[in-house]
Amino acid sequence: MTGGHGAAGSCGSTFIEMGYPAAITVGAAAATFGLIFAILVGGPVARMLIEKNHLTPDNSDTLDTSVEEINAGHGEKLTTLDILKNVTAILFCMALGTEISGWLGKLIGMSFPSYVGAMFVAMLVRNLNEQFHWYHFRFPLVDGTGDVMLNLYLSMALMSLNLYQLLDLIGSVLIIVIAQVVVLVLLSIFVVFPILGKNYDAAVMCAGLLGHGLGATPSAIVNMTAVKDKYGMSRKAFMIVPIVGAFLVDIIYQPQTIAFIKFFVQGFAD
Q: If you count Cβ atoms within 10 Å of the first and of the last residue's Cβ in the chain, which end, N or C, has fewer?
C-alpha cells in the first residue's frame, strides 16, 4: 500500500485501461485504510520497542545536518520573480516528466504513472540547480505548494469515489489490507529493528516505516513526531525516513509494481 492515494490513482488508471473500471475506487479505498492503519500501529509499535528495550535518544551532535541546512527556510522575503521561477520549474518538471512517462509507456506497452517521470525530472533539476544556480530555489515554497496540491487532489479523489462499487469487494479488500498490516508489523519488529541496530533511532524509524509502508510519507512523519514528542528527538530518523519514504522507495516499488502488472495482470486482461 505504499504510495498512498497518488500511487493508487496512477496505477488504477492502468487497470481501467485493461478493462477494470472500479480500479481507482478499490485503490483509493485500500489507500485510505492503509493511512488509517499506518497511524494506528506506527506509534504503538515504536513505544513497545522503546519501553521493552529501555531505549533512550542519542543526543550527541555527530550527525551531518547539511540537508537540513539546504532545505531550511531563513525568513528572507521572496520576490515575485523568485516565486514565478519556482512555480515555472515545477510546471516544467511536470510537463517534461509526463512526456517521459508517455515515452516509457509506449516502450513497455502499457500505461506508466506520469508522476514518476516528473519526480525524476525534478530530482535532476534540483541537483543541477544547486550546481549552476539557475534560479533561487526555495524548499518551503515548493513544499507548501505540494501540500496544497496534495490536499486538493485528495479532496477531488475522495469526492468522486463510488463506494457502492466496493460492496461486493469490501471483505476481500479488508483481508488484504489487514494481512499487509500484520506482515509489515512483524517485519518491522523482528527484521528491520534488529538490522538497524536495536537502538532508539531504529525504533523511531520502524514507526516511520509503518507510516510510509502502509500509507505515505506524511503518515511516517506523523508517527515519528508522536514518538519524538513523548520520548525525544531522533535526528537520524528524521533525516533518513523522509528521503527514503518520499523518493528512494519509488525507485524500488514503481518498477516492481509495473513489472507485476505487466507479467501477472496484463496477460489475464488480454
A: C
